[in-house]
């Protein structure tokens, strides 16, 4: 049974909300650039280091990918926390590279990322299983189908013989 939500009379003006969000971004573009400059420079530095290391075989490629991911994860989240503090709290400048609340946000990002990664791995393993089960199911289907066919043939043959025996007698 489903129950429809009762109308509360309050409606959200989507157009006004979107307009206000874009207006905030346009009004604070310079502050956003200032908030993003140092983290972006560090991410570019990490990319450059990863580019220098990346040429040494599989180990170098994997190390380069880890450096890129770590640089983006750490300093990308620094910018995200800074932007949200500007938007929600009106904080225009930070005293340190890592703003207050960054550690909690970073750990939450890592936890959610690991949950998504584990979920994707589990789904990948599940997706790899069906061809084997389908193959076994197909073999069982053919086995029982053939047994039923043989049984039907035997029944038909025995029925024909009985009829033939009745006609002879």
Walkthrough of the structure:
With 169 residues, the protein is mostly helical. The protein folds into two domains: 17-128, no CATH class; 131-164. It contains five helices and no strands. The chain has helices spanning 14-27, 29-53, 57-89, 102-128, 130-168. α2 runs antiparallel to α3 and α3 (57-89) packs across α4. The chain is elongated and about 95 Å long.
Mean pLDDT: 81
- For this structure, the quaternary state is single chain
Quick one: overall form?
elongated
The biggest beta sheet, please? none
Q: What structural class should be given to the helix and strand makeup?
A: mainly alpha
Order of helices and strands: HHHHH
Question: Roughly how many Å apart are the termini?
Answer: 69 Å
Number of spatially distinct domains: 2
Q: Helical proportion?
A: over 70%
Q: Into which percentage range does the β-strand content fall? A: under 5%
Tell me the number of helical segments per DSSP (H or I, 4 or more residues long). Answer: 5
Give Rg in angstroms.
Answer: 34 Å
DSSP strand count:
0
Poorly predicted segments:
164-169
Question: Which helices and strands occur, and which strands form pairs?
Answer:
Elements: H1 14-27, H2 29-53, H3 57-89, H4 102-128, H5 130-168
Helix pairs in contact: 2-3, 3-4
